[in-house]
Amino acid sequence: MIIPFHVREMLRRIKARYDVDRTPQQMSPKGEGFLPLRPSRTADSKTVARFWEHLKPKASEADQAEIADPATVAASETYSANIENFIGTVKVPVGLVGPLRLNGMNANGDFYVPLATTEAALVASYARGAFAAGRAGGVSTAVLYEGVLRTPAFVFQSLLQAGQFVDWVVGNVEALQAVAEATTRHGKLVSLEPFIDTNIVFLICRYTTGDAAGQNMVTIATDALCRAIAKDCPVPIESWYIEGNFSGDKKASALAMVTGRGRKVSASITLPAGVVEKTLGTSVEAMLAYGRVANLGAHLSGQLGAQAHYANGLAAFYIATGQDAACVAESAVGVTRMEPRGEDLFCSVTLPNILVGSVGGGTGLPSQSAALNILGLKGAGHGTALAEVAAALCLCGEISIVAAIAAGHFTRAHESLARHR
Questions:
Q1: Which of 40, 195, 266, 316 could join 350 in a cystine, given CB atoms 3.0 to 4.6 angstroms apart?
Q2: Domain range holding 311?
Q3: Which residue stretches, if any, does this entry annotate as coiled coil (predicted)?
Q4: What is the CATH number of the domain that holds 179?
Q5: What is the three-class DSSP state of 17?
Q6: Are residues 320 and 263 in the same domain?
Q7: What is the pLDDT of residues 131-165, one digit of tens each?
Q8: DSSP secondary structure, 145-190, as one string
């Protein structure tokens, strides 16, 4: 049997660090003197100072001044609803992309898009795509479908009881809908779909959530629904769980790829050949040739969907605008298409899991609120428009990176803007 080189190299490194006497002792459990921090929602100057006392001597006064700066400490109560054990804020550089011209069902006009990132070259890349899109007349966008999922699981003794349970749920769906919707002013339970695996039933609960991303909203509503089921259902339930790990919450999943989780958004544009050549420094033919190779690579490697780097733009956009950044794990799934339209290039993206909100979550925090104001999309009435901006941003990123790789400029751009900045 052949042992791969990387396995041999890993073993060599482990052996080099291993000491017969010290390593086992170093890796053994140690319980003495362990004093965990108790979760606290209190956020004021005294509490912040108390937590920093725990960090001495590892953290210096200069470290404290960077994270717990005077402006942050003065506004500490503002953060109390969003975090526990508050010690300050981390400053992430924010760059501006724009104007990003949208011809959307919900977002229409020119938008300046703030992106929070520490990755040099990222803003420049998305800005180049936005510039090309503007030269071509703007990006067409539409929210095609929406519905945030929560999938509770119910365990029974047998398959027969699981079937009886589904029959009872179907017969009582309107009453369950009323119980769920009683917990929220804005959420609506739009579908309830059972999925049976022998003695376990997953209920796929899909909600619209107004202008909020709605993760907490659907959890609270589904908990009420499940408790009503546990109380009234005549079929004996051995156990139930608020989430059966079926919904794809903060995970890329085939279910969410097909049915969507959040807002399903498409964005598209036709780039004239002249714009591709003058603005992107390549040709339609070169972009299509690379696109075919990249699409094959996506399929052969088993990607969910086929795209270049949605996560780059979405992570920066989510952090800047107060979204749940962990949702990028599922939001950055979708399909990029590039096709010839005569001499021109048709480009589109479809993302089935855009989870953004213009209200709730972190959107009310000072910096994030300001970022939403820059977009002109803060507050009620702007959730779908925000989702369309997110999809259009991803389209611009796809256009730019495909053009850069097709033209052989990708490495040079990162050397000049990132490594050798």
A1: 266
A2: 97-145+256-419
A3: none
A4: 3.30.70.420
A5: helix
A6: yes
A7: 999 999 999 999 999 999 999 999 999 999 999 99
A8: EEEEEE--EEE-SSHHHHHHHHHHHHHTHHHHHHHHHTT-SS-EEE
CATH code at position 105: 3.90.770.10
Among 119, 181, 223, 285, the one annotated catalytic: 119
Asked if residue 57 has a cis previous peptide bond (ω within 30° of 0), the answer is yes
Annotated catalytic residue: which of 66, 181, 243, 250? Answer: 250
Give me the residue label for tokens 């611009």.
396
Same domain, 390 and 276: yes
Residue 178 has pLDDT above 60, yes or no: yes
324 and 404 in a single domain? The answer is yes
Active site residue 398: no
Q: What is the dihedral of CA 11, 16, 20, 22, to 10 degrees?
A: -120
Q: In this predicted model, what pLDDT tens digit does every residue of 223-255 receive, in sequence order?
A: 999 999 999 999 999 999 999 999 999 999 999
Q: Is 21 a catalytic residue?
A: no
- For residue 92, the model assigns a pLDDT of 96
Is a pLDDT exceeding 70 seen at residue 418? no
Asked if 131 and 269 sit in the same domain, the reply is: yes
Element (H, E) at 230: helix 215-232
Q: Which of 264, 378, 382, 414 is catalytic?
A: 414
Q: Has residue 86 been placed in a domain? A: no
Residues 320 and 384 placed together within one structural domain of the fold: yes
Q: Which of 223, 243, 277, 324 is catalytic?
A: 324
**Catalytic: 250?**
yes
pLDDT of 414 reads: 60
